[in-house]
Every structure is written in C-alpha cells, then in structure tokens.
Inverse folding.
C-alpha cells in the first residue's frame, strides 16, 4: 500500500455523523454567549493555558471555577506540585484499576463502563473535573512503551471499550479526555516524530477508536498528541482537530494539549487547540497581541472559551474545601477494579488440565519469581497510581491458600524496583543466590507457580522497549526449574507481549495476568484455584518473535537516534546505563531534523498482518481458553435494511459455569479494493451454565463494512461478497456463512 502525505488528501468531505451525546454539551450555549460578551480579552485568554501543572483558569470575576485535571487513566493520580513533584498527601491514595490492555482483554463494554465510573467517582471526591484518559491509540508495536496503557491492536475492540469507559466516567460526573489524538503509536521521539500514513489506513484503523469515544461515548475532552502527522504537529493540525473531530464527528467539547505539546501561537490557535498545558507560552500573551494586531480574530478566542465553558457547565464544580474529605480509594472503586481484573485474565494454555489447581492435592506450592511480590501501580510516569493498596500475586495466593497448603516463595531473579522518580539499584541481589533458593523451593513442591513478566522499568511512557525478551534471566531460570520440577504454571505479569517461546516450552499451563490493579492478586488466585473460570481474551496478537510483527518485518521501526524525551530521559538513564539521548534543550529538536515514522504496512496491523500473511503466531488475537468448553452452532446471517443481523448458539459443554467471548469476523471476496484476510466486526461476552445454550444476537450496521475511498475522501461500499466467521479467536473459527 502506498504511503502518501496526509494533509493533501484530507479535505474533510466525509459525511457528518451527528451525535446526541455531543449535542447535550450545547444546552448552555445561550448562557455561555452572554458570559463571553461580558469577558475581557485578557480574561478569555487566561482560560486558554495552564494556571498550574494540573489546572486551567475559569472566570473568577464571574464566579466560574477553574478546571482541574488529573491523570489517568487507571486511577486518580496523586496531588502534584511544581514540576510534577508529589505533594505527599495522605488522603490522595486512589484505587488502582487494571491497565488498558487488561481492561480490553475483558472484551466487555459493561466492565469498561464500571471501570470508568469507578475512576470518575473517585475523581469527583478529589474535586477533579477532567480525567486525562482513556488512552486509546492502536497498539502498533509490540515494544510500544505505552502498549499497557492502550487498549488493542484492533480499532473495533478499542473503540467499544473506550466508549464504555467514557460513558461510565461521564455518568459519574467527570469529563473524560480521550488521548492521544492521533497516531501516537510509539514513544521513541514522541515529541517530534512525523507519522506518514496513507489516508485509508488512518481512517480505517487509527482514527476509528477516537471516533467511537467521541460519537458513541460522548467524550467531553480530547487531547491532541505530541507527534506530527504529515509534517504538522497534532496540537495545530486543523484537519484533525477542526475538520474531522468537530466537522465530521460533531465534537462540541474542549481540546487540551498533551503536556508540553504546544508549539506555536497561530498554529495552535487556528489548528483547533483550546488549552495549552502545562505552560503559558503560546495561547497566552502572544495570542492577546495577535488579536490586537488583527492577525487572529477574537471569534477564534471566543470559540475556545465556549468549548471550555461547555465542559465547565456539564461538570459540577467542587469547591476546594469540599474535595478530598476522605481517602480517595473507596469500596465501589475497589469492587469495580476487582470485576475488571476477574474478567481480564487470559488462560493461554492448559495442557493436561493442570489448571485449576486443587488445594487438597497440594501439600507444598512453590511461588517463584520477583513479579509475584512486585507492586505495579506506581511508575510509568503519567499513568502511575499512588494506591491505597495493591494485592500482589503472592498475597492473593497466600490469602486463598491459607493454612491448607504450605506456600514457599523465592524471588528467583532480579527486577529494578521503582522508587519515586527513579529505580533502586541497591535492591539487586546476587543472581546465583536467587537461583539456588528458587531451585531449592521448586524441587519438592507439588506445583511451581512461576510468576514472570516485565515491569514499569521496561514498559513505560517516554521510551519503547528495545526487545520483548523477559528481563532478569527469566528464560534461563525457568529451564533450570523445569529440570527439577516440570509441574509449572506460569503467570505473566506485563502490560504488553513478551517473547514466551522458552517459558511456553517449560510450562504446561500459562496465564496472562496483566498489571491488574489493586485487586489483581485476588482475581489471579480465584482463577488459579478455580473459584472462577478464566475468560479474558487477548486484545492483541502474541507473536512468536518481535521480527515477525509488521512494523519490524518491514523495517519501519525504530526511527533514527533517540532524542531526549520531554519527561522520561532521566527515568530511562536510571535503567539503561548506555542510554545517551541527544539533548536539544528547551528549543526542542530542529524543525528540519524530525524523524519520519513510515506506516508502510498500511492497515495490516496485528492479526490483519499475521492472518493475511498466514504466519505462525504464539497466540492469536482473541485467544483465551476456559475451564469449560463451548460448542458453536446454528449461525444465521441476514440483512435487514441497513443492518446485518447475526444469530448463533453457544453451548457450554463443560462442567463449570463460565463466560465465553464470541467473536464475529468478516472475510471479503470479489473485492474492488484490497482488504486484510479478516477483520473483527462484533463480539459478545456471555455467561453460560454447564449444559446450557445461549443464543447470541448481534447487529452490525452495513456502513461498518465500508472502506475509505481516497478519491472522494468518503466512506464507500465496494460491493464485496461478505463471509461471516464466528468463533472463539481470530484463528479458532467455528461457524461461517456468506451473505
Ligand atoms: C502524557 C499524557 C499525560 C500528561 C500529563 C504526558 O507526558 O503523554 O498522557 O496525561 O503527560 O501528565
């Protein structure tokens, strides 16, 4: 697929989709116009930049409160002072929710809704108006530093989950700020990288989740990303912010720059940015001058104020003395966090039915692996949560097992411990000693629970991983454990993929346990010991090796030398001694020196690539086993008006109640344009009792099968013959029927 410039093609000719959720934001427009007419230019511009690191100004003279922001997206961030320094309060301990890939692994908009609502309620208790989340960029690179924050490699799954989260958060009274708009798919040089993507791919893959969050979710705020698209910074990209977001999707709320992502006065003012954060450089004094000298119309400023006031009136202001009366984390949030965690854990394999473990048969359980006791809430920069508590895998297992079996824990390998804004190297122990302890623990155990994974020292905002190899010698360790005890259940604690070829070789059973929030350890123990059946499904493809994945196979990553990151350089130096970023200082990288990220794989992202190229993978997109089995039958597909209706039966043929996520993909023949081998179009999570059959009914709007026509810049039907593939993963198709 040809890679072509972005701006030349994007003339905003697509149909308007209109949105009642967005229209709700305009109910106060008359009042807002009156307010604007009473404001001075200085008062207006005062609203368009930072008041402090996490607030922008209201209209104090007219009694209109400032807007208070907080990260996001997995719990309300701690209170910050200058330069992001924590204020070290006691009452700002929040519930830590499962991170993005875990939430998406539930394939449940209802669960995402509860998650958004739980965070939204805690935000209200802290007096926050806008939560900086959800983060919904497509997981393009397995090494992506923020893959754990993002939701999926698939735009339909990411969009459905994002819309659920946004609705929940906004029903709790807090505005959601969807980020990072758009194409912020890598952390390397995120502040300057210039994405070159063809127009069709951008529309069909990368913009879709944002459209869902805005149109179906009704998001009140959107955060333009750091990067450039077609040479233009997102914060000043008029095509993106004015033509598509507002013009086509009917967005009525406010845009807020990513922190430090504003680059000019005129560009930002005319390119659709409403608030510059966390500085007052561009949409500040120079904007007042530009209006005074006539180069920018005051109407442009009025529009921005209107967007902000719409959100201000939609979100009830909480006076300072009413906020933070109690500790942020409260029972409803904790319950919601547990519900997400419970449904997110993915059973990757279960040879010989090793899982669930039966406590009665186990005198001694060896838990091996530092990640069993690792806290995952903090770290990763913006998305870290100072949590009231976090049940680790080890704690969860101990709570579940009680006195019924002996549990012996050995860390086995080292990880870098996260401490405040850096890593504690002093905590590293002698690997030989760790290994000897681990082997001694494993030797006479009835089962070994090997807990491996990554950590926020590897998966973080501000940089991408160099590879997907498990750190700390985990591969070597598990091989040695297997030699003394082959009865291994492995649990991976990570946000993104790791190279699991070695671990899988030695583990008859494997679970993907994610960074699963305050209640993660409890949810994990429930799955390990069979209180619940695992029901998570992978939201991304698990490749065999990094080089197989599209951007790597095509040499589209990495791009150029690493430049200093806006926030993460010091952080990264702590863990990578050889890391030497180019420091361009406050002026940032020179305009002529920015990197190009070429997306020449086009729409073949994730399974679209692997399935089209018929490549082997470790685990396919949508994969996740259960303690039950499911039989699929009786597929019917029909078209009624503008909707395709599907119905099929799913029967639980196993012996335990369990959830299944039934997935519908479409394959196309007789096409007028190129398509991937298959694409996810709909899905449904169902709870089914043993022996019970449930009929799943799904409706898909016919327009969901359209492609983006680059000649007319509009959605168009190519008249292809559609075959619907129904199954339990992208590669476990049980039923199919053509329309
Ligand atoms: C991140 C955003 C975050 C912001 C404020 C930026 O570095 O990219 O996701 O919301 O900081 O903390």
């Amino acid at each position: 697929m040809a890679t072509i410039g972005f701006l030349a093609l994007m003339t905003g000719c697509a149909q308007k989709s209109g949105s009642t959720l967005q229209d709700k934001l305009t109910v106060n427009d008359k009042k807002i116009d009156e307010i604007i007419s009473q404001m001075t230019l200085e008062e207006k511009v005062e609203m368009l930049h930072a008041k402090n690191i996490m607030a922008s100004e209201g209209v104090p003279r007219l009694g209109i409160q400032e807007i208070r922001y907080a990260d996001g997206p997995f719990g309300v961030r701690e209170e910050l002072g200058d330069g992001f320094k924590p204020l070290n309060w006691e009452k700002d301990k929040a519930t830590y929710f499962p991170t993005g890939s875990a939430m998406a692994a539930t394939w449940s908009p209802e669960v995402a809704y509860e998650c958004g609502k739980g965070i939204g309620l805690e935000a209200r208790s802290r007096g926050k108006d806008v939560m900086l989340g959800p983060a919904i960029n497509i997981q393009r690179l397995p090494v992506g530093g923020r893959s754990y924050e993002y939701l999926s490699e698939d735009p339909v799954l990411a969009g459905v989950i994002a819309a659920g989260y946004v609705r929940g958060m906004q029903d709790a009274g807090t505005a959601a700020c969807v980020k990072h708009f758009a194409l912020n798919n890598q952390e390397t040089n995120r502040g300057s990288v210039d994405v070159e993507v063809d127009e069709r791919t951008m529309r069909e893959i990368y913009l879709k989740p944002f459209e869902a969050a805005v149109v179906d979710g009704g998001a009140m705020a959107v955060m333009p990303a750091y990067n450039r698209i077609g040479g233009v910074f997102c914060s000043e990209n008029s095509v993106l912010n004015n033509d598509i977001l507002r013009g086509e999707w009917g967005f009525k709320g406010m845009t807020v720059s990513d922190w430090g992502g504003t680059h000019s006065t005129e560009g930002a003012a005319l390119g659709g940015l409403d608030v510059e954060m966390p500085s007052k450089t561009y949409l500040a004094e120079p904007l007042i001058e530009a209006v005074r000298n006539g180069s920018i119309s005051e109407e442009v400023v009025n529009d921005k104020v209107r967007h902000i006031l719409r959100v201000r009136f939609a979100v009830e202001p909480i006076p300072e003395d009413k906020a933070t009366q109690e500790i942020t984390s409260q029972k409803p949030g904790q319950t919601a966090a547990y519900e997400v965690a419970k449904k997110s854990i993915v059973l990757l394999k279960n040879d010989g039915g090793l899982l669930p473990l039966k406590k009665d048969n186990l005198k001694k359980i060896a838990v091996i692996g530092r990640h069993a006791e690792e806290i995952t809430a903090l770290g990763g920069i913006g998305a870290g949560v100072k949590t009231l508590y976090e049940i680790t895998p080890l704690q969860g297992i101990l709570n579940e097992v009680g006195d019924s079996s002996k549990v012996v824990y050995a860390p086995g390998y080292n990880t870098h411990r996260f401490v405040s804004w850096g890593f504690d190297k002093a905590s590293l122990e002698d690997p030989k000693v760790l290994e000897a302890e681990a082997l001694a623990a494993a030797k006479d155990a009835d089962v070994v629970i090997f807990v491996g994974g990554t950590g926020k020292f590897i998966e973080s905002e501000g940089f991408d991983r160099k590879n997907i190899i498990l750190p700390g010698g985990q591969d070597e360790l598990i091989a040695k454990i297997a030699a003394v005890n082959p009865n291994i259940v492995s649990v991976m604690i990570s946000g993104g993929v790791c190279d699991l070829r070695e671990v899988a070789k030695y583990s008859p059973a494997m679970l993907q346990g994610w960074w699963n929030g305050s209640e993660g350890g409890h949810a994990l123990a429930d799955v390990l010991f069979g209180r619940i059946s695992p029901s998570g499904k992978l939201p991304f493809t698990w490749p065999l090796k990094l080089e197989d994945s599209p951007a790597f196979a095509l040499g589209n990553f990495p791009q150029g030398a690493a430049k200093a990151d806006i926030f993460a350089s010091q952080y990264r130096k702590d863990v990578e001694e050889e890391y030497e970023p180019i420091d361009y200082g406050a002026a940032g990288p020179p305009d002529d020196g920015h990197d190009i990220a070429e997306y020449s794989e086009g729409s073949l992202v994730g399974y679209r690539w692997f399935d089209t190229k018929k490549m082997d993978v470790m685990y396919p997109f949508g994969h996740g086993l259960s303690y039950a089995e499911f039989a699929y039958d009786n597929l019917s597909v029909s078209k009624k008006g503008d909707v395709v209706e599907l119905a099929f039966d799913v029967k639980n043929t196993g012996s335990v109640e369990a959830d299944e996520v039934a997935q519908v993909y479409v394959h196309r023949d007789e096409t007028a344009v190129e398509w991937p081998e298959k694409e996810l179009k709909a899905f449904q999570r169902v709870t089914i009792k043993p022996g019970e059959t449930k009929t799943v009914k799904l409706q898909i709007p016919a327009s969901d099968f359209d492609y983006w026509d680059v000649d007319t810049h509009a959605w168009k039907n190519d008249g292809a013959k559609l075959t619907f593939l129904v199954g339990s993963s992208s590669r476990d198709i049980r039923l199919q029927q053509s329309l």
Q: What stands out?
A: The chain has three domains: 26-320, 332-528, 628-738. The domain at 628-738 is CATH 2.60.40.10 (Immunoglobulin-like). Residues 109-125 form the longest helix (17 residues).
